[in-house]
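> call design_seq(struct)
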């Protein structure tokens, strides 16, 4: 099916109410749109975003997709396309040490099943690696391409500037001057969601005084599918494996520092940056190089007090923002996608008004506990590990060592990291 551009929609078509309009063409918004279109092809679904997701993206980051997220992408029919650019995470090593320590004792390890002989990384079950690293460009491109093939309408570049409930619809005003109607408006416009603000939904949260430095690094020694999480006094320092580019071994770096130090490192010269990298990484990966622009993102915690209003729902980062210490931000958003799409589709098949608040409250109840639990967990972990107090260091060292020696507890941790705690159909790899 040919792509549908906003310019191709006539005024008559724009006057017909959409079933669902999604503001935000990131991973959550696009996955939500594709989930609806693959399950109920007759649904009229539109994406509104200041950028057209079908155009080339400048996002150089990669994301860790847990096993449940992989199942979702398989159910949507795009995992094989993503897998060509994916790197399985076969093992996770966790250490707790000082910044310049020459030796970093290993207190916790998570080994994926591939390290024990399993090689089918596409099977939608626990026999596959608990996560894959996938370039954001690859993920968004695959979602947008599949959405276009399934008849998704792209109203881009454009943005929703105002909306108001009018009977059974939300009436939307776009930045272009167009007005459209929809039975349900989904805000997937990020952690600083303008639509969340317009809806009057309040948030709970705070800033950590930390920023994450993100870039791609090269190294002369192979990573062998191993990820490292070094807990350093300033915050977690994660090295996540990426596919090699020819003979160049690559990893994704997520490096937490105090805001002022992070800005200094990002704006400083590359030689100093690389020296600071070597202090933290050591010689495990050989000679290091910086392969992409250094980016800096301030870190905080945010959870919306409500996820829904009549004919309005928050999705992904618009509903919650958490510390990247556990690498679960994107996967939390994919759990939202699975729960909200199943809520909408089940209601539609029963002949119910899927935009009604009582229906949408099902989604809110489904997601609130998991979201609050993950937000609290990442907050506690960050506070526990982002300090250098001797008694606290001793307690967490003992705790990590105990987890590593208790197979049952360790298996539960792996299950949580893989996203198996919350089980809408898409997270099990099943169609809705």
């Amino acid at each position: 099916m040919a792509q549908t551009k906003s310019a191709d929609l006539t005024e008559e078509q724009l006057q017909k109410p959409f079933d669902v309009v999604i503001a935000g063409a990131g991973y959550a918004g696009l996955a939500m749109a594709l989930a609806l279109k693959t399950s109920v092809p007759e649904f009229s679904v539109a994406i509104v975003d200041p950028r057209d997701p079908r155009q080339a993206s400048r996002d150089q980051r990669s994301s860790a997709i847990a096993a449940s997220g992989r199942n979702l992408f398989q159910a949507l029919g795009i995992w094989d396309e993503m897998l060509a650019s994916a790197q399985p995470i076969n093992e996770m090593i966790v250490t707790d040490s000082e910044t310049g320590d020459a030796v970093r004792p290993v207190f916790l390890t998570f080994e994926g099943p591939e390290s024990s002989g399993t090689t089918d990384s596409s099977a939608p079950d626990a026999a596959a690696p608990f996560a894959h690293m996938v370039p954001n460009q690859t993920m968004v491109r695959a979602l947008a391409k599949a959405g276009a093939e399934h008849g998704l309408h792209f109203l881009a570049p454009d943005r929703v500037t105002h909306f108001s409930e009018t009977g059974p619809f939300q009436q939307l005003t776009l930045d272009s001057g167009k007005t459209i109607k929809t039975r349900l408006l989904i805000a997937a416009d990020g952690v600083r969601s303008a639509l969340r603000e317009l809806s009057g939904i309040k948030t709970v949260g705070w800033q950590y005084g930390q920023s994450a430095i993100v870039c791609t690094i090269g190294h002369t020694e192979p990573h062998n599918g191993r990820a490292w999480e070094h807990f350093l006094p300033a915050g977690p320092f994660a090295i996540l494996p990426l596919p090699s580019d020819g003979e160049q071994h690559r990893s994704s770096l997520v490096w937490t520092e105090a805001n002022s130090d992070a800005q200094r490192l990002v704006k400083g010269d590359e030689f100093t940056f690389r020296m600071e990298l070597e202090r933290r990484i050591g010689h495990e990966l050989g000679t290091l190089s910086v392969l992409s622009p250094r980016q800096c993102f301030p870190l905080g915690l945010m959870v919306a007090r409500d996820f829904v209003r009549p004919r309005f729902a928050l999705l992904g980062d618009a509903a919650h923002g958490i510390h990247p210490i556990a690498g679960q931000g994107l996967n939390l958003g994919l759990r939202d996608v699975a729960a909200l799409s199943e809520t909408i589709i089940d209601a539609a098949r029963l002949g119910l008004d899927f935009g009604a608040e009582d229906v949408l409250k099902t989604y809110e109840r489904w997601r609130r506990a998991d979201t609050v639990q993950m937000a609290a967990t990442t907050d506690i972990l960050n506070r526990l590990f982002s300090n250098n107090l001797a008694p606290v260091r001793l307690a967490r060292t003992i705790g990590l060592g105990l987890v590593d020696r208790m197979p049952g507890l360790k298996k539960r941790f792996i299950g949580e990291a893989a996203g198996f705690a919350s089980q809408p159909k898409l997270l099990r790899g099943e169609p809705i």
